[in-house]
Design goal:
By secondary structure, the protein is of the alpha/beta class. The protein has helices at about 15-30, 45-55, 55-60, 70-75, 95-105, 125-130, 150-160, 180-195, 200-215, 220-245, and strands spanning about 5-10, 35-40, 65, 75-80, 110-115, 135. β4, α5 and β5 form a beta-alpha-beta unit. Bound molecules: S-adenosyl-L-homocysteine.
Length: about 250
């Protein structure tokens, strides 16, 4: 079982169906599947929710509904409330990144919950009092409040990254070794002479410049082959050109 399955996202009295759908999508992108809604509103537009959930419709249908926050978090060890606001009760917040480590540690063996508030009023102090942690997402001092689903995305993303389930695509091509690189530099040197790119006095200076440029990133065998091909072709064209001039 994946550690991420132990993470429950709790939405307290969300207003907009579109936001609920977007929350499902954000959760799905991060392999987090357990959604709980506290006291769903009769006015919620569930068609909107389905539309915005896109490929996460199963997730939306599988949501659990609870009458109170206490019931939604029963059985959870760590319970993190999220708030854009600071001040009494809300100081001592951690960032989503810090929480990524804390939350996952507990999620190894227990169910944990992240609690998100209403779009218009957030979470009440009584609701925050039930939480063991408060997460504040860093944001502009001019506009601190994120859209509900964006806030869920940021928190789920940090937990997902901390779980190290995702491996970024790696360069598969082999790195070029010194001997191969030197063959390429020799060809570039010849190309600079044959194309009359630079005078004799400046040649070595140019070569040092080229070495500096080409050592800024890792050169793979296919990279060096391209650079060699370019030099060989330029040398060949210059030789043809020289011949044409002589023949005239
Ligand atoms: N006007 C409300 C904001 C509600 S936004 C208020 O002032 O509290 C809806 C929910 O998104 C919030 O209750 C919170 O759970 C989450 N959220 C939005 N911005 C956030 C932030 N900067 N940090 C943490 N959570 C945030």
């Amino acid at each position: 079982m994946s550690i991420l399955e132990n993470i429950r996202i709790v939405l307290v009295e969300p207003i907009f169906g579109g936001n609920i759908g977007s929350v499902c999508r954000a959760m799905n992108n991060n392999d987090i599947t357990d959604l709980a809604i506290v006291n769903p509103r009769p006015t919620t537009d569930w068609d909107d929710a389905r539309k915005l959930s896109c490929n996460a419709k199963d997730q939306l249908e599988a949501r659990k509904e609870f009458a109170t926050l206490e019931e939604a978090i029963a059985g959870c060890t760590v319970v993190a409330g999220t708030s854009a606001r600071t001040g009494f009760y809300r100081d001592n917040a951690c960032s989503p990144r810090e929480f990524g480590q804390i939350g996952l540690e507990s999620a190894k063996d227990h169910k944990i919950a992240l609690v998100f508030g209403r779009e218009d009023k957030g979470l009440t102090n009584e609701e925050l009092a039930l939480c063991t942690h408060i997460i504040q997402i860093p944001s502009s001092e001019h506009y601190t409040s994120l859209n509900l689903s964006h806030a869920v995305m940021v928190c789920c993303y940090e937990l997902f990254c901390a779980s190290e389930t995702f491996q970024p695509a790696e360069e598969k091509a082999d790195e070029a070794d010194s001997e191969f690189r030197e063959r390429m530099f020799a060809l570039w040197r010849e190309m600079m002479i044959k194309t009359e790119f630079t005078h004799d006095q400046k040649l070595e200076h140019m070569m040092m410049g080229l070495r500096r440029i080409f050592s800024r990133g890792k050169l793979t065998v296919p990279d060096v082959k391209i650079l060699m091909g370019l030099a060989k072709q330029s040398i060949w064209v210059s030789e043809q050109w020289q011949k044409t001039i002589k023949d005239k």
